[in-house]
Amino acid sequence: MRATLRRFAVTTLSALALAAAPMGAAVAAAAPTHGPDSGAESAATEPASSGVRSNTDEREFVSLTIDKVTPTAVTTSSEPLVTVTGSVSNVGDRPVHDVKVRLQAAPAVSESEQLRSMLTADQEAYDTVGEFTTVTEKLQVGQSSRFTLAMPLRSASSVSLGITEPGVYPLLVNVNGTPEYGGQARLDDARFLLPVLGLPRDPSIRGADRPDAAAVPPSITDPVAITLMWPFADKPRLASGIPGSSDEKVRLVDDDLADSLADGGRLEQLLAAAEFATGDSVDRDHKLANSMCLAVDPDLLITVSNMTRGYLVVDDPSDPNGPAHEGTGQTPATEWLERLRSLSSRLCTTAVPFAQVDLAALQKTDDPTLVERALSAPAGIVDGILGITSRRGLTWPDSGVLNPEAAGLRGLGPTALLADNAVAEETTRSTVPLAGTTADRPLSAALFDVPAATALAAVGATPQTPTYTPADVRYDLSDDSRTARLQDALGAIAWPALTPPPNATPNADHGLLVVPPQNWSVNGDEARTVLSTVSTLMRSGLANPRPLADLLDRPTAQSPVDLDYPAQAAKDGAPERVQTGAAAVAPEINALTETLVNDPQSALTPRGYTAPLSEDLLRALSTSGRRDRDRGAATAAAETRVSDVEKALTEIYASVTVLPPGGAYTLASEQSPLLLVARNDLPVGINVRLQISAPPEMTVTDIGDQQLPPRGSRTLQVPATVENVGKLVVDVALTTTNGRELGEPTSVSIRTNAYGKALAIITACAGALLLLLAGRRLWHRFRGQPDPADEGYEAR
Asked: Could you tell me which residues are beta bridge partners of residue 707?
């Protein structure tokens, strides 16, 4: 609606400006005008709004920003009025005169869908209006002016918001003004939700005994059971295409994570907020602590753990093996990791799939090793680094949805954390069995509230619109300030507690799973405000803590439900070409791992050497950054990772080869062995096979698998038989035991002095002649006769 009004006003004003008098006399705009004492908006002559904000680039005159709302959530002990501070900025090309703002309110949200739809609804839906307050008489181009609006929640003697009972109320700040060459018009607005957990006393009514003046507490007859997920994740930071090492420092593509882990950084503030809110001095009855579960990305833990030992930051992310400099985050990483270990030792902790991998893309790669590293290995990684035993049995896809094919992945579940619209049927239960899973591997879904999760995803420096958000309430979040987006989240969290399900029965499954996005860009104030609101709900009796273990252990006797996979998931998931590349490269990594040698005396195992390459493929399949306005950066990073892994494999295979001889090789006899030297430049041993192509006159014996030491060479003796004398050329290649070619093939020139059968016959004849002549001499001597061969020689 806001976009429609702007288009209408701009079109009208532009047309009138063209027809304006030379002296620039003001003309009346066709948009409705409102004086400072106007009590209600006139109906605008415009088409009915679709209710969805437009993302079309438009010309604007002013931009309205909300900086602070007090209180963020109204309670019986709050001040009896709402105060909104903000600013109006001239973003147009002309001055704006008579800039005024006022506060408007809509009736309390009665259906969960209104938590989002009311943020795009027509202004006429905000039918309770306050009086205009002048911000400035003239706002020059590029100039900003601050304002403060205060309005009573209820009042018997003055204009108020008309709020008389607890609930979640949509509020709107409307700005009017008169652009130069135009008339007065509505120029912008800002909307947000105000959770009213209880009404304070109405000070406009005198007499403490007046019922209509008393504070109004909320109904606590049916408290909601709250489970809160608190995520620790980040986008992939490790440089790609670098195998594991036992002595080399890891490389990062940038040093932004160091800032995030340091005091005041995003991850440090997420941790600090959880530490403070669950501390004994604040959470005395441990209700918040019992409701909370830390959700940790193992990829983040691997990166931070490596940073604690010192690390490098590459100068050029496109050249991961190129020049690099020392990173600055070793100390912050060490301190942050120790604090996380301490917090996780006393709170529920679970692992999320590796690097926020797209499970649909993972299933399409059809590689058991990638599936194992993505779904089964994370719990062990989290346990090993944090020194805890994490909660098993839960898989939380970053997208919040799951397609039927991915539901069959081994290592999934037995419970998946999904949006409540990710299943085809509406249900009031928190946990439901899923159809299509096998009896020996059943899968259930723990369902979280879509409006609350959508609102939480919009909070922070990088607002997101989740995959599961319905199309009719998707809009450009940049229209809203951070304060407004935070208020929307607080209202969405509070609404289920203030609005029990219709026809609810005692002990019904009235629960709320609070699920922010895994890579959440909130700051410390926003994180503390969210936790404070959840804590307030429990302290006021509107909510009770429900540990994650209780949610997962709930019986699901109802009939299985089908999964509902939205079309948006394909757009938000890993690109098709990245999936194809990962599926092609993954088997090559597995083949390499199989042929490497596991040496108990070496710190570097075959799995440790190749694991970073498999993990790079998972990082390439990540949904991190895929829901940002510019997803091109995430796509480019994913394609680079797959390409870098391919290059790394090529370099690894080239590092094991047969050394070419310096000259011709001479065989002393027909059965002299052929001596070849094979070299391995890898830091781990490898099993290889010689592939020799010899001419027909040469027979070579297969010597089978041979083991090459790490960073060393070995002479290989190959039994050979040559039947003819002369010069031969033998082609020699080295392969892995599973047939992958290693290094460059080489040719060996061989000279042989062997004569074969002819030499044997000549030797035999010469031997026979020698025996004959020797026998004749002995015969003559035995008979005492001189040998005729001695005639002519006289005895001396």
From this structure: 687
Beta strands 81-90; 128-129: pairing state: unpaired
Token pair, residue 37, equals 């004492």
% of the chain with per-residue pLDDT over 90: 67
Residue 71, preceding bond cis, omega within 30 degrees? Answer: yes
Residue type, 101: V
Q: Confidence band (pLDDT; 50, 70, 90) for 53?
A: very low
Cross-strand partners of 308? none
Query: Own/partner pairs for 302-305, CB < 8 Å, 24+ apart?
Result: 302/238, 302/381, 302/385, 302/615, 303/234, 303/237, 303/238, 303/250, 303/252, 303/257, 304/257, 304/261, 304/333, 304/336, 304/337, 305/333, 305/337, 305/385
What is the C-alpha to C-alpha distance for residues 195 and 451, in angstroms, rounded to an integer? Answer: 14
Widest distance between CA atoms in the chain: 165
Count of Cβ atoms closer than 10 Å to residue 603 Cβ: 10
pLDDT at 722: 76
**Alpha helices in 207-297, H assignment, sequence order:** 256-261, 266-277, 287-291
C-beta neighbour count of 622 within 10 angstroms: 29
From residue 252, alpha-carbon distances to 339, 371, 634 in Å are 23, 25, 16
* Residues present in the chain in total: 796
Nearest to 722 by CA among 686, 755, 692: 755
Cα R_g (the chain), whole angstroms: 39
pLDDT confidence of residue 129: 95
C-alpha span between 26 and 60 (Å, rounded): 19
Nearest to residue 24, comparing CAs of 95, 124, 123?
95
- How many Cα atoms sit within 13 Å of 355 on the Cβ side? 28
Specify the DSSP element, H or E, that contains 779.
helix 756-783
Alpha helices in 357-505 (DSSP H): 359-365, 368-371, 377-386, 450-457, 482-498
Distance in angstroms (rounded) separating the CA atoms of residues 622 and 572: 10
Contact 715, 731 (CB under 8 A): no
For helices 330-344 and 298-307, the axis angle rounded to 10 degrees is: 130
- Identify the burial level of 445 via C-beta atoms within 10 angstroms of its C-beta, where 0-12 means exposed, 13-18 middle and 19 or more buried: buried
Residue 579: phi, psi to the nearest 5? -60, -45
Res. 91: pLDDT tops 80: yes
Q: How many CB atoms lie within 10 A of CB 690?
A: 20
Whether residue 170 has a cis bond before it, omega within 30° of 0: no
- Give the Cα separation of 572 and 582 in Å (integer): 17
Distances (CA, A) of 59 to 91, 93, 318: 9, 9, 39
Q: What percent of the chain has pLDDT over 70?
A: 85
The residue written with tokens 């804590």 in the block is: 535
256 in Cβ contact with 325 (< 8 Å): no
φ/ψ bin of 2: left (φ > 0), alpha (ψ from -120 to 50), beta (otherwise): alpha
- Alpha carbon 707 to its chain centroid, in Å, reads 40
Alpha-carbon distance 194 to 63, whole Å? Answer: 22
Q: What is the mean pLDDT of residues 683-692?
A: 92
Structure tokens given for 82:
């709402």
Residue 445 vs residues 402, 430, 581, 608: alpha-carbon distances, Å? 10, 8, 31, 34
Name the more confident of 220 and 793. 220
Nearest residue to 361 (alpha-carbon basis) of 620, 689, 17? 620
Sequence-distant (6+) residues with CB within 8 A of 596 are 606, 609, 610, 682, 684, 685, 686, 687
Work out the mean pLDDT of the chain and round it to a whole number.
86
Pairing state of beta strands 96-105 and 128-129? antiparallel
Q: Reply yes or no on whether the pLDDT at 603 is more than 60.
A: yes
* DSSP classification of residue 596: B
For residues 107-114, give the mean pLDDT.
94
